[in-house]
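Supplementary notes (optional reading)

For those who missed the lab, this is the record we used. Protein: Malonate transporter. Length: 320 residues.
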Amino acid sequence: MALTLDHPVLSSLLPVVLLIGIGFLAGRLKLVRGEAVRDLSNLVFLVLVQALLFRSMATAQLDKLDLRSVALYYIVAGVMFFVLLFIQGLNSRSAVVALAAIFSNTLMIGVPLVQLAYGPAGLLNLFTLISMHALVLLTLATIVIELLVAREKEASGEAGRRHIAATVAQAVKNAILHPVPLPIIAGFLYSLTGIGLHPIVERPLELLGSAFGPVALVLVGVTLSRTAIGPHVKGALMISGLKTILHPALMALAGWALGLSGLPLAVMVVAAALPVGANVFLFSQRYHKAEELVTASVAISTAMAVVTVSVVMWLLPRGA
């Protein structure tokens, strides 16, 4: 498959690479100071993501979602998450790394890629995945990380020992009141009212949400400019390989085992082959876990995806 600038893979991935590059240049030229990075991270995590997630759930047509088609995606991703977590060790850092291996950049890269490659029918399949992507994977990761953080604090003496039920209850509370699951839950509950969002409210939310991807990727570049990549290349290559090679391979095998084929299977595997999503970078920043490793993984997996996504699309054409 020849790659030209108008090829769906390159036309979707190159803007992402350029945005990361712009952030990297801005960081190197000190246009964004180091002390401002944390404030920018808070802006993205506490404002832009809130608007994006709430509006996505509040306007989702939940009655049209084919939950059966996405169930396999999340089962495979969940199994992969927990296997990686246990292999690396039960700690909060391992949870962030495991999330990086299963959480795809479905919005910034997935939407334009699938639109160009598969058209409206492909987008319908992808939107079914995206509508629950953050709800399922980020909520799962948040609960697990909060539980592990609580356990680590008790072990280090930062928090008094509590009954396991109290620890679980506190972790679940922290997870629900977390900046990611909270707007998802609020948006989902609002969608059940059937009222819909008035344009005066929806338009600002749409503008804020559309700013999430570009600002988050520029922030990745700024952080990358301040990160010594050398010590993290091996780890970043491992995470990138898990994300862009193993993840789609497992999805394809599971799909074939259940008799799936054609467009639904192709879109599902392409989604799994996408590079590490920026939300994982924000998670690592929030919990101060594996920040440099995740930053390097976002950049390297994006570059690797040029090849891996092309191979997936070649092996799994629309009518496969």
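If you only remember one thing from this example: Residues 8-315 form a domain with the Na+/H+ antiporter like fold fold (CATH 1.20.1530.20).
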